[in-house]
Write a structure and sequence with these properties.
alpha+beta; 116 residues; two-stranded antiparallel sheet
Length: 116
């Protein structure tokens, strides 16, 4: 695999075994977003579609609001990631955005056009 980057000057980077690389890096905020999303959809937002596309959109939007907190291994039980209140705020904002413009409606309309 060869990556060609064009910023100031062309640069070729050869990555040996790129297809075989395994990475165990995780974003602590992803785990928090999913936990808060599950809780909010069960307790406060029964009107939000529970389809996988809407859940993915909400999670992606919320994660884009939050700074990443990557980790490899946590030996101790210490708190990592953004504060819970910050995560909840990001998820609430993301739910509002998806409620305003859900993507699954566009996919359904597109599928109906192709089947006609």
């Amino acid at each position: 695999m060869v990556l060609i980057l064009h910023y100031i000057y062309p640069l070729k980077i050869h990555v040996a075994g790129a297809a075989m690389m395994k990475c165990n890096v995780r974003n602590a905020n992803y785990e928090r977003v999913v936990a808060v999303l599950d809780k909010l959809l069960k307790e406060r937002f029964s009107n939000v579609s529970d389809c996988q596309r809407c859940r993915d959109d909400i999670a992606a939007i919320a994660l884009n609001y939050l700074p990443p907190h990557y980790y490899v291994d946590v030996e101790e039980q210490k708190e990592i990631g953004s504060p819970w209140v910050m995560v909840e705020t990001a998820v609430l904002e993301a739910i509002d955005r998806v409620l305003e413009k859900p993507n699954h409606l566009h996919e359904e309309a597109r599928n109906q056009k192709h089947s006609s």
